[in-house]
Every structure is written in structure tokens, then in C-alpha cells.
Write a structure and sequence with these properties.
Elements: E1 8-12, H1 16-26, E2 31-36, H2 39-49, E3 53-56, H3 65-75, E4 80-85, H4 90-99, E5 103-106, H5 111-122, E6 127-128, H6 130-142, H7 151-154, H8 158-168, H9 173-180, H10 184-198, H11 203-212
Parallel strand pairs: 1-2, 1-3, 3-4, 4-5, 5-6
Helix pairs in contact: 2-3, 4-6, 8-10, 8-11, 9-10
Length: 216
């Protein structure tokens, strides 16, 4: 890549203060060409700005980073994605990489390391925080001749996975609704759908299932 050309970076995160902080930290090194707080905004704006790298939050109220990635990659495969998340859960890491992200780092990363990660992803490298790289290696080592996949998990939507994870952590329906900015009725619907898809009868079975897959 031409060292004189500044990389064009787009930020996707539902927290305005975090976006402002990242923009301030990166501004001296890259061109931040846009930002979005929701899946819909992100898909439209990324298509319009054509950045080199998208910094992508994993969990957002309206679907999350995976929904952005899957929508954009269909029409703009040249755009590269680097997940930047507070989550270090194995399921999140594997899910984003399976969907096509080139790397995954947590929000505790130092600014200079984030700049380096962006440049490496733009150059085509895969970049992970050390502990997260272990998740990816373990997943591929477990099934070396097949892609990382879980047919049962793959049938769940992003929001159903979010509800399942919180449920398995012991959250009450009211707490899940508050965490995800949805109604209690919507939480109940998601839980019902998850139970039906996984052919289980109660939240305790779901919790054990989630724990076995390291989703908690």
C-alpha cells in the first residue's frame, strides 16, 4: 500500500462518546470518512463512502456488527472489516470471522496498536488480540477439514443470540429488555423462537446449551 496515501476508515458503534474518542485518537494517522450508530445507517453510509477499513462494534441494539458486515460484503467485497468490541466471548470472535471480518480486537487496545491493526487489515493481514487468536485457532483445530460452523447456532438470528447469551448469564426478562432496548414482550418472543429452533423446553436447558458452546 502507498505509504503516502492515508487510509480511509469508517466507525460503526452505537455509543457517540466512544466514536468521538476513537476519531480523536485516529485523526492524526487515518482519514475517518464517516460514522454510524445503527445497522441501517452503517450499510448506507459505507456504500456511499467506500472506506478501506470499517471499525465495527459487535453488539448494537438493532442487529449488531455481523448484520452490517453481511450486508456490505455482498455489494462491496473490497471493504475490509476489523471488529472493535468490548466483548471477548469466543462465540462473538468466531461469528465475526466466519462472517468475513479480517480481525478482532477489544476496546482495551492502545491507540497506537489500533492504528497498526487498521493498517495490517488494510494490507490483507488477519489481526487478533493474542487471547482472541487462540479462540480462532482452537476452533479450526477442532475441525481442521471443515469451516468453523455450528448448524444449531447458525439458525439463530443475531438478536436471538444476544437474548440467549444474557438469558444464560442469569438475566431476567426485564433486565434483558433493558439491556437490549427492546420490550419484555419482544424478549419473550425471542426466547420462544430460540426454544423452538433448538427443540428445548426451558431456559435451564438453554443455559446449559450456551455454556457448552462458551457463549456465556
Amino acid at each position: 500500500m502507498d505509504e503516502q496515501a492515508r487510509l480511509r476508515v469508517f466507525l460503526v458503534d452505537d455509543h457517540a462518546m466512544f466514536r468521538a474518542g476513537v476519531r480523536a485518537e485516529l485523526g492524526a494517522y487515518v482519514d475517518v470518512v464517516g460514522e454510524a450508530s445503527s445497522v441501517g445507517q452503517a450499510v448506507t453510509a459505507i456504500a456511499a463512502t467506500q472506506p478501506d477499513v470499517v471499525l465495527l462494534d459487535v453488539h448494537m441494539p438493532d442487529g449488531g456488527g455481523r448484520a452490517v458486515l453481511e450486508s456490505v460484503r455482498k455489494s462491496h467485497p473490497q471493504v475490509r472489516f476489523l471488529a472493535l468490541s468490548v466483548s471477548d466471548a469466543a462465540e462473538d470472535v468466531i461469528g465475526l470471522i466466519r462472517a468475513g471480518a479480517r480481525g478482532y480486537v477489544t476496546k482495551t487496545i492502545a491507540p497506537e496498536d489500533l492504528v497498526d491493526a487498521i493498517r495490517r487489515v488494510a494490507d490483507g493481514d488477519a489481526v487478533f488480540s493474542p487471547r482472541l487468536a487462540g479462540f480462532v485457532l482452537d476452533a479450526f483445530a477442532a475441525r481442521p477439514d471443515t469451516p468453523v460452523a455450528d448448524p444449531e447456532l447458525d439458525q439463530l438470528t443475531n438478536r436471538e443470540r444476544e437474548v440467549l447469551r444474557l438469558l444464560a448469564r442469569g438475566y431476567a426478562y426485564k433486565e434483558i429488555a433493558k439491556e437490549l432496548f427492546i420490550s419484555i414482550k419482544t424478549v419473550e418472543t425471542h426466547v420462544s423462537n430460540v426454544l423452538r429452533k433448538l427443540q428445548m423446553s426451558n431456559r435451564y436447558e438453554l443455559s446449559r446449551w450456551a455454556a457448552d458452546r462458551r457463549l456465556v
